[in-house]
Amino acid sequence: MQSDRLANCTICGKLYLKDHTDYCLDCYKEMEREYKVISNFLKVEENRFASIEEVSAFTGVPEKRIAEFIRDGRIYVEDYPNLGYGCAHCGTLIKRQMLCASCFEDFTAEVNKTLKAEKFFEDANKPNEHAHTARYWKLKD
What is the pTM of this model? Predict the structure, then answer.
């Protein structure tokens, strides 16, 4: 048995043989059971407009797990107008990714600003290659 195939379940921490999931068999079965409960709940026409909080309350499945199903693409939220989860930064209702568009733009701008500052600092501290080359040839003569 190869050691790289052994892993700890990301839910319960139990050691298991990793084949196709990040979960042990027991946790995987529980997740599939929860998915079926949610899926059956959302198939009912009256529940089509439920929010993630309402789905969680009626099914007993944690909001975090429902959000994982949405992010993984197992629940297609475009069919459910009020179903979504909070942005990881500001909490605005979103239907995909981890950040809303506004937070993503702010984060991208901040990263670009930091990268530009680092590049400027590196360029300022980099020795001038042309000056060294010219001195080298002058010394050699």
Answer: 0.69
Question: pLDDT above 90 covers what percent of the chain?
Answer: 40
Is the pLDDT at 124 greater than 50? The verdict is: yes
Half-sphere exposure of 57 (CA within 13 A, CB side): 6
56 and 38 in contact (C-beta within 8 Å)?
no
Q: Per this entry, what is the length of the chain?
A: 141
Q: How far apart are CA 81 and CA 61, in angstroms?
A: 20
Longest dimension (CA), the chain: 90
Distance CA 37, CA 59 (A): 6
Q: Tokens for 77, please give them.
A: 């939220």
Residue 27: what residue type?
C
Paired with 16 in beta bridges are 7
Contact call for residues 74 and 63 (beta carbons, < 8 A): no
